[in-house]
Amino acid sequence: MWNCALKGLIQVVGLDTSIQWETNKAGLKSKGTISFVDASSGKPVTYNLNMEEPPLFRYAIRGTGTTCWSAFDEKGGRVTIKDSWRADGRTPERVYLQMAKDLEGVATEVLAYADNLAQTKSYRPEECHFADRFFNRTLARVVIRSLGPPVTDFTSQKQAIAAVGDSIRGHRDLFNIGILHREITPGNIRLVQGSGPGKLSAVLFNLDMAIGNEEDKPHLSPEGRTGDQLFLSISIINQSIKSQARAAQDYLDDLEAFFYVL
Known about the structure:
Residues 13-262 form the Fungal-type protein kinase domain. InterPro entries: Kinase-like_dom_sf, Pkinase_fungal. The protein is built from 5 helices and 12 strands. The protein is α+β, with helices and mostly antiparallel strands. Strand 1 (19-23) and strand 2 (29-37) form a beta hairpin.
């Protein structure tokens, strides 16, 4: 009974109780798990966190708050668990992953997923005087087959250039089926382990900022364009600086981002 009450209190203050830790005698985390109910099968799943690799965070004051965990499935296979907070009105990432499942140059193999794990509006007091300045976001989780390291871990100029080239082709294939990626960064270009002649050297990752390539302003996040400004196009940055009316991002903005990555 005490454990249930404590868990409820922890949830109220916003901590994710689906992530559990065990500590050693020194009080340091020695083991961790992530457990949730897979929405596609309705069955509970548990993944053991890889304690040798720290999670990757999106370092931004506002936005999707993406966190990527390295973990293992029940057979010891490596997986990547990605949590992100989706603004209301946005298409869930898993929808785009399903659309792109047959594309070779995009990481889309979803092993499990969960949606509506939490909503930001649940953590705001009803009497909040700034409610009109905030937008609700929903926590979603996807589990995909583990990826290689980001392109920044290249070991030769040839590998780096090949990775960017393959990622541009993956971006083209995404666009041809109606999806615009919108977040081209080094972390979202992942090297393929053991690639060789005639094989892909890299794949595109992370579709939580993607939109349909025919969508316009009403389909964008109500908070405007967020993300790593180092890789945003000049056009998008100018819209932010000059408070211009937001236009939908297009493939030219993403191609400019590839240039900055390279």
